[in-house]
Design a protein that fits this description.
By secondary structure, the chain is of the alpha+beta class. The protein has 12 helices and 10 strands. Helix 4 crosses helix 7, helix 4 runs antiparallel to helix 11 (about 380-400) and helix 7 packs across helix 10.
Length: about 450
């Protein structure tokens, strides 16, 4: 399969993964809502015109044209307002005319949707803790899904590491540590002297079992110049050999793979135990604790990225339209993530296991982003609804403390215009990121 087809396949698989992530998020809302008796009228993946839909019981399920999210429609998201008081409430709301009209429209739509539905099936009729469970359910499912993906990627498939299989045996201990070329005066390598050949698999060194090279690399340094037992597997048979590691000064490389030099331009070196083998890379599964640590690291990084997002938006706008330089570690749109997934899938340097692990890790990071982003306490995000429920809880307590009659759930219709404004901001930000990924991709 050529690289173009692999690129397209990588993008398509990521899109399927994103669709699954959205579906799982909305399921996290819908399942507890139905369990608590709320009438859920719609479960949709995407926005805009409907591509395909079907009805099961009380709920319409379907797919919409714009795959930038999804939603469920629950009856009674806003509390009821008596019809005779609506005009007075509209006049009492000190806001511009357009604001009052938007609030009135939201109330009318809410009343029309919930008029024939018993009030005990309204979202706002639920106790506050149940409302919190419903709204937290979506982000929580993304956290669970992302964690499961990362456990498969790192805990089952693994991460690239030096395995314990020998790809090549060097003939000498080279005096030229950069080219690793042998000259006549160079001594024979310890591995060649010990009788190790390409294809051998190291089982143990000095009695220490070796499932990967890092298991014994520290012990190699401890045994420099000392004859030490090394056990290898060759053609299904176990061989007991003896090897004496030697000390060799090797160049120090930075994270980009470039030699590190001092102020005079001389390459820096460090003492290294050398036996004269080149290892085959392998995918080594990580422990559960290591995966949990990586999940925590990614969540912290995601929080940091979102906190820095306002500044990143300005920097990206400057880079996109003003000719500035785009940060290599800045945010990307779904288009940019798709490009990365395609590049991973079409990379000739990665094998299938590495591509699969990388793809699952990308999808996991997207789910962590959905988890954290949706907890921002702003409507229309889930965190906004959760913040409103917590505000109502505090307000209820205050009324109870003052022995005043409770007036009913917090009326979010009053800030519907702010919700619309937030939607516009999110859409504008998404379009900016998409434009940046087209004009100046990372």
């Amino acid at each position: 399969m050529n690289q173009t087809l692999l690129f397209i396949l990588g993008v398509l698989l990521l899109m399927l993964g994103v669709g699954a992530s959205i579906a799982i998020h909305e399921l996290g809302h819908m399942y507890p809502a139905k369990k608590f008796g709320v009438l859920v009228t719609k479960y949709m993946i995407g926005f805009g015109p409907t591509i395909k839909s079907w009805r099961r019981g009380e709920t319409e399920y379907g797919f919409k044209m714009i795959p930038l999210g999804g939603y469920i429609a629950m009856v009674g998201m806003f509390p009821a307002k008596p019809a005779e008081a609506s005009e007075a409430a509209k006049r009492a709301l000190r806001a511009p005319k357009f604001w009052r009209e938007l609030v009135a429209q939201a109330r009318e739509a809410n009343a029309e949707q919930s008029a024939a539905v018993p009030k005990n099936r309204w979202f706002t009729s639920l106790p506050i803790h149940k409302r919190l469970i419903i709204m937290f359910g979506g982000p929580f499912m993304n956290l669970v899904f992302g964690s499961a993906l990362l456990f498969v990627a790192l805990g089952v498939i693994g991460t690239p590491a030096m395995g314990n299989s020998i790809a090549k045996v060097y003939d000498c201990v080279p005096s030229d540590q950069v080219k690793f070329a042998c000259v006549t005066k160079d001594p024979v390598s310890p591995a060649k002297t010990a009788g190790i050949i390409a294809g051998d698999q190291v089982i143990s060194f000095n009695g220490i079992k070796a499932s990967q090279w890092s298991d014994i690399s520290g012990e190699l340094a401890n045994r420099i110049g000392q004859p030490t037992s090394i056990q290898v597997l060759r053609a299904g048979k176990t061989l007991d050999l003896t090897i004496s590691p030697v000390a060799m000064q090797v160049p120090v490389y930075d994270a980009a793979g470039k030699p590190v030099v001092d102020a005079e331009g001389n390459s820096l070196t460090q003492l290294h135990a050398f036996i004269g083998v080149q290892l085959k890379p392998a995918m080594m599964p990580q422990s559960g604790a290591q995966v949990v640590g990586e999940i925590e690291t990614q969540l912290r990084a995601t929080v940091g990225m979102i906190v820095a997002l306002p500044g990143e938006v300005g920097q990206m706008a400057t880079a996109t339209f003003g000719g500035g330089k785009r940060a290599s570690n800045g945010p990307v749109s779904l288009l940019g993530v798709g490009q990365i997934a395609g590049q991973v899938a079409s990379s000739p340097e990665l094998d299938l296991a590495q591509k699969l692990a990388a793809g699952l890790s990308i999808l996991a990071s997207l789910n962590f982003a959905l988890f954290v982003f949706n907890l921002i306490p702003l409507l229309p995000l889930d965190g906004g609804h959760m913040a409103a429920a917590l505000f109502e809880s505090v307000k209820r307590g205050w009324f109870k403390l003052r022995k005043k009659a409770w007036r009913g759930p917090v009326d979010l219709t009053k800030i519907v215009p702010l919700t619309y404004a937030m939607w516009l901001v999110l859409m504008a930000m998404s379009l900016l990121f998409i434009e940046a990924d087209i004009v100046k991709p990372i």
